[in-house]
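Changelog entry: the Cystathionine beta-lyase record was regenerated in this release. Current contents:
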Amino acid sequence: MRSETFLLHGAYDPDTFGGVVNPPVYRASTIVFRDMEDMETRAKAMSTPEGQELWYGRKGTPTTFALQEMLAGLEGGHRSLLVSSGLAACTSAIMAFARTGDHILICDSVYGPTRQFADTVLKRCGVTVTYYDPLIGPGIRELFRPNTTVVFLESPGSQSFEVQDVPGICAEARRRGAKVVMDNTWATPLFFKPFEHGVDVSVHAATKYIVGHSDATMGVITANRETWSTVREYVFAAGLHAGADDVYLAQRGLRTMAVRLERHFRQGVDVAMWLAGRPEVERVLHPALPEAPGHAFWARDYTGASGLFSVVLKPGFSREAFRTFIDSLKLFGLGFSWGGYESLVMPFDPRHERPGCHWPYDGFSFRLHIGLEAREDLIEDLEKALRFLHAR
Ligand SMILES: *Cc1c(COP(=O)(O)O)cnc(C)c1O
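Regenerated structure tokens:
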């Protein structure tokens, strides 16, 4: 079954709930057992890595199980677990493997809050971190130490959108016995299949395209067979969980993800190309554009692009003009997150979060999320706002 069909018919059989098309919302803390024997049987199952029983609300309900199964299948991993946010998925996937004295490698283009976690909590736990150039590829072998246990990838990178040589990095990690965790949020499980490229654990901010409507936060951790029990042990031990109603929203959002992504992809590329032709623009950082960093890896390994990319302006515009440009956009909301149906803009400067990073631009930069609006309206909106850059 292809992914587009799997989204609709995979994992969940309506017959389970008397023909109800969508898995119902189970709100539960206590699950009562029929008797001691029933409790003991389920306890036995839960004590094995593959155990998935109705045991206690925090450990999942049929609502959770249905979405987890769907996501694991879609991504091609062994099993998935849901947590309350994308950030929790990132940090937990690292914590599942990191021990005091370990060294881990994280790409320099990682999502800012993931980096902050590494620089504070991981550091406090005695874990050292080296940030690597996202375009390093197999050259990452030089950075391994005897105690390197985890390589954390995010491809393409936050803000700067470098696409990484995922299989090249995974091969080196495997050789050194390190586990590879990848934040695959941008591509969604539709456009990049991490487990086919050597990743051990994939994480997503389901908050973005999976929920798809800017109305819930959620994270997904998907493990391969080899790492599953370690991930499960950590998630259960730490008490991580996603609420029933949010799980339902994610399940509902997921059904239309393929059609939404197709449009985000198409119009994202159209708007990116239009911007690349504008005299105010220095560079458009969109993985599908040939001049984007790591474009060759995107072309080799990805089957599509989502609607998120960055734009760098030519140097010389005043800060005030740039602010007026951002404020003049009518259809692009100024706000964090992305992946909903609507267009968004967010100014950034990667040098604020990435000390010493290679950022060869002097102009202002901003990130766009291209939503599902008509592209002509989005382009008109951008065109009008760009005029303010020239105002004195
Ligand atoms: C948004 C985002 C996250 C965090 O997700 P939240 O649900 O907001 O915590 C993690 N990684 C990437 C790449 C993101 O874009």
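The domain at 3-26+61-255 is CATH 3.40.640.10 (Aspartate Aminotransferase; domain 2).
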